[in-house]
Specification:
Blueprint (H helix, E strand, L loop, with lengths): L6 H4 L3 H12 L16 E5 L2 E9 L4 H7 L5 H14 L4 E11 L4 H18 L2 E9 L8 E11 L14 E6 L8 H10 L7 E2 L2 E2 H5 L7 H8 L4 E6 L15 E5 L7 H10 L3 H5 L6 E7 L4 H8 L3 E9 L2 E4 L4 E3 L3
Parallel strand pairs: 3-4, 10-13
Antiparallel strand pairs: 1-2, 2-5, 3-5, 6-11, 6-12, 7-8, 9-11, 10-12, 13-14
Helix pairs in contact: 4-5
Length: 333
C-alpha cells in the first residue's frame, strides 16, 4: 500500500490559500457599481450592463506539457479556466489578454501555445486581443501561462446564487478529465511511485490523458440561459466540490448520484492512496460544472445540454455540500 498523500502535503494547502485570499480581499476598496468579490468572476455595473473580469492560469499542468514536449493544448486550458468562470455569473466572454512568463526565450513554444490559445478562444466565442510576454530568468524555473477575460452580462440577469432555494435540482456536466487542477499532487504521486508518463492508459499514454484540455462549457451554458431560468452555476476547479459552497451558504447541496467516476481519478486515488474526501476537495471527479435550476426546468435543461449533463442531486434545508454515496460533508470553502 503506497503512503497516503494529500494535496497539502504536496505543497498546496487549500485552506491556507483561502485565508490568504481573505486577507488580500480585506484590503481592497470596493468601488461604486462593483460586484461583490468572491464569486467566480467580478465586474462593474455600467448602466444596464455588467462588464466582468476573470483571471486564472494553467498552473503546474505546464510541467506535464514540458515532460511530454507537447504545448498545443495548454493554451486551451488557460482560456477554459477563465471563460468557464466568466459564464458562471451569466456573462458572455468577449475578449482575453494572455500573460506568458518565461525563464528564458524558447522560440519553439510560441506557435503551439498560440494555437492553443486561439482554439480555446474560438470554442468560447471570444477573441484574444493582446497580452504580454515576460522573460524572468532570476524569478522563474518554468513557463507560466495565465490570462484575463472580459465578459458582458445583462444587469437584470446576473446569476449570483441568491435565487437558489430548497427543492432546486443540481445538474452536473461531465469533465474531459483532470482539467487544470491538482497537478502538484498528481506529480508527487507519479514521482514517489516511479510512474512514467509514457505508460499506457487505455488506448493512450498516461501523459496524453493528463494533458487532455479543460472542457469549455460556455456555448452550452449560454444556450441554456436563453431558454431556462438558472439559479446558480459553479465551475468545479481547485477545491473540487467545495466550490459549490461559493453559490450560497444558507442551503445544503445534496449530491445523490454521480456518473461513473472516470478511470483517471481512480488511478490517482489508488496509486497515491488518496482518501475519497481528499479526492473530492481536490479534483472535479468527472463533473466540471454544476448548474442549479428549479425542478420544473430540469427536463428542458437536460435536453438543451445534451448527454454530458446529468441530474446529480438537489438543494435542501441546511448548510454545506453532502455527497451521499461516499458519506462526505463539506461545511466551508
Amino acid at each position: 500500500m503506497p503512503r497516503r498523500l494529500t494535496y497539502s502535503e504536496s505543497g498546496v494547502d487549500i485552506d491556507e490559500k483561502g485565508i490568504f485570499v481573505s486577507r488580500l480581499v480585506s484590503q481592497l476598496k470596493k468601488s461604486e457599481g462593483a460586484l461583490s468579490i468572491g464569486h467566480f468572476a467580478g465586474g462593474m455595473r455600467l448602466k444596464g450592463q455588467v462588464f466582468t473580469l476573470a483571471c486564472d492560469g494553467v498552473g503546474s499542468k505546464i510541467m506535464i506539457a514540458r515532460a511530454m514536449n507537447k504545448w498545443d493544448t495548454v493554451g486551451i486550458d488557460c482560456v477554459a479556466m477563465n471563460v468557464n468562470d466568466t459564464v458562471c455569473i451569466g456573462a458572455r466572454p468577449l475578449a482575453l489578454v494572455d500573460y506568458i512568463a518565461l525563464p528564458r526565450v524558447e522560440l519553439d513554444l510560441a506557435s503551439p501555445i498560440g494555437r492553443g490559445l486561439n482554439r480555446g478562444a474560438d470554442a468560447a466565442g471570444a477573441t484574444i486581443v493582446g497580452g504580454e510576454v515576460a522573460v524572468l530568468p532570476d524569478m522563474l524555473k518554468e513557463v507560466d501561462i495565465s490570462a484575463t477575460c472580459m465578459g458582458i452580462a445583462d444587469r437584470r440577469h446576473l446569476i449570483t446564487g441568491r435565487a437558489i432555494r430548497p427543492g432546486d435540482v443540481i445538474i452536473g456536466m461531465e469533465s474531459s478529465g483532470v482539467h487544470s487542477n491538482g497537478f502538484t499532487l498528481i506529480r508527487r504521486i507519479l514521482s514517489e511511485n516511479n510512474i512514467a508518463l509514457s505508460e499506457r492508459f487505455g488506448r493512450i499514454t498516461l501523459g496524453q490523458e493528463l494533458l487532455k484540455p479543460t472542457e469549455i462549457y460556455v456555448k452550452s451554458v449560454l444556450r441554456l440561459l436563453k431558454k431556462v431560468s438558472v439559479h446558480g452555476i459553479a465551475h468545479i476547479t481547485g477545491g473540487g466540490f467545495r466550490n459549490i459552497l461559493r453559490l450560497k451558504e444558507s442551503v445544503r447541496f445534496h449530491i445523490e448520484e454521480l456518473p461513473p467516476i472516470p478511470p483517471i481519478f481512480e488511478f490517482i486515488s489508488r496509486e497515491g492512496n488518496v482518501e475519497q474526501r481528499e479526492m473530492f476537495q481536490t479534483f472535479n471527479m468527472g463533473i466540471g460544472m454544476v448548474i442549479v435550476i428549479s425542478e420544473k426546468s430540469a427536463e428542458p435543461a437536460l435536453s438543451l445540454l445534451g448527454r454530458s449533463a446529468h441530474i446529480i442531486g438537489h438543494v435542501e434545508e441546511g448548510r454545506g455540500v453532502f455527497i451521499r454515496e461516499y458519506g462526505l460533508s463539506y461545511m466551508k470553502y
